[in-house]
Amino acid sequence: MCFPPNTLSGARAMNTASAYRKLRELLDTSPESGLFLVVAGLAVAVSSTMKQQAAQPSAAMVLLLGALVASVGLPHGGLDAWLAQRSGLVRGAQQLLLFYIAYLLTAVAVAGFWLWQPGLALSGFLLYSAWHFAGDWPERAVPWRFLLGIALLALPAWMWPDAVASIFGALAGQEGRQLASLMNAAAPWLLLGMVGGLWRLRRHPLAIAELGVLIALALIVPPLVFFLVYYCTVHSLRSLRRILNGVSTAQRPRLLALAGLHAAIAALLVLTAGFFVMADGNNLQVWLAQLNASQGLSLVFIGLAALTVPHMLVEWLVARRGMVC
């Protein structure tokens, strides 16, 4: 069938405008997605110019990792106390004090277990992180959720085996390297399962697009860069937005300030704990000057693992009371 040229041009223009409107609608429902796509592109560009250096993390890269995790990644967990109060889980100043004590003791227990059994602790951290991070996606079926989370964590070990083995070795010694090897072997099968299950998200085209970009990032950019892009621009911002969407516009600056304050306190506590465990009697300035990449990785990830457990417990308890967090 033939159409006049003007009709074809008009149809193309209408299709383009319609596609643009749909894209805008999708980004409006998930505004951090635009930032994610920009940061993902920058990550690929930067990684291509420093591939060898990025594959084996330097002290400067680990310092950047810690700074971004503290300033961008932790704030969404900085509202745990507020969520506990708002849901009625915590009432009054006395219960709030007990909440903080329980939160801190749980984090200390997790960190202590890691120092005692680093291999088991790292394995556990990967498992509960997979479950926790996969909650960012609309499909909540348990098998798919778990597969998705594990696959996203395992893919870097497939394309960057030496870098992941180095990171896991710093975190858990030989047991960590063995775990990296296991993830390397499992990654292609997990990827097949994840791609085969994408039909579950067929009603969420933006989620499919984001997963496609994440898969590409996991295979292209170094593991720490991939972790930063995902944790900071997808998981943390999305979690924070879900909370802020449930309050008035006037309340949001106060909650953001509260989240930032708690994140700063958490980062300071992790740094203080690291000083007492690793310092060997040196003063803080000397210890910081002597920190190497392996010690920095341990400090960041053990601290993150320790804070993630009480954070997940709070989310679970609050969700049981019907609140979204």
UniProtKB/TrEMBL annotation:
An example Gene Ontology CC term for this record: plasma membrane
Highest taxon of source: Bacteria
Catalytic function, reaction form: all-trans-beta-carotene + O2 = 2 all-trans-retinal
Function: Catalyzes the cleavage of beta-carotene at its central double bond (15,15') to yield two molecules of all-trans-retinal.
Compartments, as annotated in UniProt: Cell membrane
EC numbers for this chain: 1.13.11.63
Keyword Iron belongs to the record: yes
One of the record's GO molecular function terms: iron ion binding
Mode of membrane association: Multi-pass membrane protein
The family this protein is said to belong to: Belongs to the Brp/Blh beta-carotene diooxygenase family.
Any one Gene Ontology BP term: carotene catabolic process
Species, as recorded: Thermus filiformis
Ranges that cross the membrane: 62-84, 96-116, 146-172, 179-199, 211-234, 255-279, 299-319
GTP-binding recorded as keyword: no
NCBIfam families in the cross-refs: blh_monoox
Cofactor: Fe(2+)
Keywords linked to the UniProt accession: Cell membrane, Dioxygenase, Iron, Membrane, Metal-binding, Oxidoreductase, Transmembrane, Transmembrane helix
Name this polypeptide is given: Probable beta-carotene 15,15'-dioxygenase
